[in-house]
Amino acid sequence: MKQTTRCIDTDLTVIGSGLAGVAASSFALGRNIKTTQAGNTGALAYTTGYFDLLGSLRAYGGKSISDPWEGIRTLRKTEPLHPLARIAEDDIRASFEEFITFLADCGIIYGKPGDSNLDALTPAGTIKKTFSVPATMQAGGDAYSRKAKCIIIDFRGLKGFSGRLIAANLQSHWPQLRTERISFPDIEQGEIYPEVLARALEVPDNRAKLAAAVKAVAADAEAVGMPAIFGIHEPDKVMADLQDRLGMPVFEIPTIPPSVPGIRLRELFEQVFPQRGLTLIPQQKVLSVDLQEKIITLDLKDNYGPIHINSRTVILATGRFISGGLEAHMEGITEPLLGLPVTQPASRDLWYEQHYMDKGGHEIHRTGIEVDEQFRPLDQEGKVVHQGLFGAGILLAHQDWIRGRCGAGIAVATAYKAVQAAQSFLQPPEA
Question: What is the pLDDT of residue 430?
């Protein structure tokens, strides 16, 4: 049976489903731009849920920083081509405020970002600097700061989380931290995964049983930490119920990816975007893009057949190597979808430093595409490739989001600027 090609006419197409892609789509919806989102599933499921703005600087030898805004001001001097260095502070603040407000409106609450980075617990039992955390994780940083009597609960058979490891690594800084391993009520013993427990806790009876089991070992604890399992769709409701039953603050600690906080975000966007009028083509690779003078055409297919998109503008938010935005070959690094030039070291010998944990990072992690001040990709001669094409996220060159701990900052802020630029192109001011 011959499949019919479906045609979609849209004002903006966002290619990519990682944090930059979904942030761009949320900003576009907030501006009533007719939007389609397509592309491979991004790395959302692999995020801890923490939103980093800027956590360390090359100029400071890779040391953690408490003030991300001072860090960005330093970036403007030391790394002026870094994406965050090219965006005004007011715009960065506005981008986070708008994105976090959108998330809260959809049911996932984040703490309001301030002027300083927060202390956040990691699955390895270390403390990292981050900018904003889900409300379900906020009490963990508070308990650490107060050095409160705290118990971390982990579960027999749970993959990707060890309360004993966390407590052991933090013992010298947090002497009143201890851990207990218990069985999760009514779950068969053996290997279990965080997502299974999260979906179980969406049932009130399971929360009651878990609270009783925790209360039996909590003793004089003032706060309780658990792996990130407070439900998928209503984490704040699950947290509030557990707190009421236990009579003390409870908080989540991220697990090794794929993590529940990342799954929450992915499922939220997949549910909310179509409800709000966005055309979503999830988990499908864009096969080709044709940059015509007045329109950009995209071709892809899903289980129902070929799809043809006519779009006035496009935001390229395809990420780097994991999500396929860049490809590494023996002869160099390429951008596969449009063949855009990639800024990269002159030879493979320069991709890596001798020591894997080098505080300066590896040059391969600073590769990416070049853009102008409106975040339009540039060709080999430094000219704009297309007036209606924009780039966002970690695909952009001159940043190492891994060492800089700035992945969310780059994703959200550049998506904000790209959508602003697309809106100006679609709705030019009257003369």
Answer: 63
CA-nearest of 8, 42, 161, 27 to 91 is: 27
Look-up of token digits 């690594």: 169
The residues, any chain, with a CB within 8 Å of residue 25's CB and separated by 6 or more, are 14, 35, 37, 269, 273, 278
Query: CB 141: neighbour CB atoms within 10 A?
Result: 18
Q: Give the helix ranges, DSSP H, for 300-406.
A: 401-404
The top-level CATH class assigned to 123-253 is: alpha beta
Interval 95-134: pLDDT, tens: 999 999 999 999 999 988 889 999 999 999 999 999 999 9
Q: What DSSP designation does 85 have?
A: G
pTM equals 0.94
Considering the domain delimited by 6-107+263-426, tell me its CATH architecture.
Answer: 3-Layer(bba) Sandwich (3.50)
Give the phi and the psi of residue 65 in degrees, each rounded to 5: -120, 145
For the stretch 58-89, pLDDT in tens is 878 778 899 999 999 999 999 999 999 999 99
**Measured between alpha carbons, how far is residue 139 from residues 97, 142, 258 in Å?**
21, 5, 22
Q: Where are the domains of the chain?
A: 6-107+263-426, 123-253
**β-pairing verdict for 118-121 and 127-130:** antiparallel
